[in-house]
Write a structure and sequence with these properties.
By secondary structure, the chain is an all-alpha fold. Helix content is 54%, strand content 0%. The chain has 2 domains: 18-77; 86-143, 434 Repressor (Amino-terminal Domain) (Orthogonal Bundle). Helix 2 (36-51) runs antiparallel to helix 3.
Length: 150
């Protein structure tokens, strides 16, 4: 038969066990998420599974089910983060961190260059992007337009 049971009664790693999966389902039955409270509870269960490290096939299946429920809820109830990049991203980060143009002078050397970049009169250089990524603690890729097709 497919699954091997050791003398301890436990399934071998890598095998599936209907009773183990049912135990997971019983502990926290997956249901469509209808409110933020249910979302948080589901995310806590997901986090506890991820924190375990290596998962059994049953735990992985269960995690996939919970992840699908979270994804579906977020698609319906959470607005997507707009895909902003380049100068728009810099402006958004300045606003988010309550910074002014002059706070970027160490990156661009002068306030006039900061102004020219923010007004679209100058392009960002690779050095600017690297320094901005370090300054704002983001990936340099965040400053480039996404190539996703929509």
């Amino acid at each position: 038969m497919g699954n091997m049971i050791h003398k301890t009664g436990k399934m071998t790693s890598g095998s599936r066990s209907p009773s183990t999966y049912i135990e997971l389902l019983t502990r926290f039955p997956p249901r469509p998420i209808s409110c933020e409270e249910e979302l948080l509870a589901t995310q806590q269960v997901i986090d506890s599974l991820i924190d375990r490290g290596e998962l059994t096939p049953d735990e992985q299946d269960y995690l996939n089910v919970l992840g699908t429920l979270v994804y579906e809820y977020e698609q319906l109830h959470h607005q997507a983060i707009p895909d902003i990049h380049g100068v728009e991203l810099i402006k958004a980060m300045l606003a988010e961190f309550e910074l002014r143009q002059k706070d970027l002078v160490p990156i661009f050397k002068t306030e006039s260059i900061v102004s020219a970049i923010l007004n679209g009169q100058r392009q960002l250089t690779a050095t600017h992007i690297r320094k901005l990524a370090d300054f704002f603690h983001v990936s340099p890729a965040a400053f480039f337009e996404s190539s996703k097709e929509g």
